[in-house]
What does this fold into?
Amino acid sequence: MKYVMPQAGRAALDFLASLSTVGRDLTAPQESALDKAGLSEDKLADDLGARAQQIEGVLADVPAWRVANLMGEWHAVHHGPLAVEAFTPIADALKPQFARAQQGPTTLTADPDFTPPKYWLYPIHRTAGGWDAHEDFGFIHGEFLQRYILSKIPRPPAAGNAPADLYEQRRLVAEEAPRLDYHDIFEIGCSSGPYTLKLAQVFPQAQITACDISHAQLLQAQRNANAAGLSWRLIQADGAASTLSDASQDLVTSYIVLHELPVEAIRDIVREAFRVLRPGGDLLFGDVAPYRAMTKRAAWRTDYLATYGGEPFWRGASTLDMAAVLTEAGFVDTKSYGLQPGNYPWVTYGRKP
Ligand SMILES: C[S@@+](CC[C@H](N)C(=O)[O-])C[C@H]1O[C@@H](n2cnc3c(N)ncnc32)[C@H](O)[C@@H]1O
It folds into this structure.
């Protein structure tokens, strides 16, 4: 898409990006205060609530913690409206490009009567309206809140001068699949398609079907696929009730979807994946690391940021034993493990016998 964002929009998005960069620098003083207070791993409670009291009791008087909270709160309230404001002046210029980009080999089957599950209506990330916050939120989220902002956050020095692939971790997850010769792949929660694009690169011969509940996100996924000359089948559907035929897929997969779902919805998705997979088919999820794979302090921080950042289901998903959930649904060879330092992305795998 060709567009020039007016200066006010660029400044607002650059400011949002700088909050993330500055936020990193505010972590070290908090950690030192916790060290000084003697809150080492063995002193921290196992119970998340009791642990929060221990840590937050110490941090309450630490300026870096108070500033980080102020910035986090400001970001939560303003990121959605600022991104929409950055889009509004260029909306008219983009509409004809959107219409052209809908034309191409990728199909989108919308369901105008679709009733989303109740949890999906929660304003995730504290964005009023959630994934469908605006009729063009697929573009606004995918281009501004994701691609533009991520590209402005400096990479850690260890990354050197290599050109940044902002979506590299999605490719790493796709490459964890045990086969390369899948015929039919089903992705749940594709959003504007960043993981779908990696699936298309790693499995170029596969027919990809991808679902999402959000129509606005699917429209942007269709534009991205057409721009790359790809033939996906996009469907507006709940991954737990996909409308796909029994035993029709060789790989069912998703990237950073499950932590936005209540535990029961995760179980439903796993059961649905089992139904649509062919015998011998693979299930592969990439998501955030569970709390058990983190230090107690890191788990507390993740839980705190999730709670105040509009992620009400994160704790449930992060304390769930995903390999056990897959086993209960009938999968075999189940396993869960982290990639890269920090265990992100976290991979869960199982095979339908
Ligand atoms: C964090 S985004 C995932 C984005 C994408 N997979 C990526 O790689 O960035 C979560 C997406 O899952 C979708 N979603 C949530 N629950 C779903 C469900 N039950 N079925 C299908 N999509 C769902 C949301 O609408 C949203 O677009």
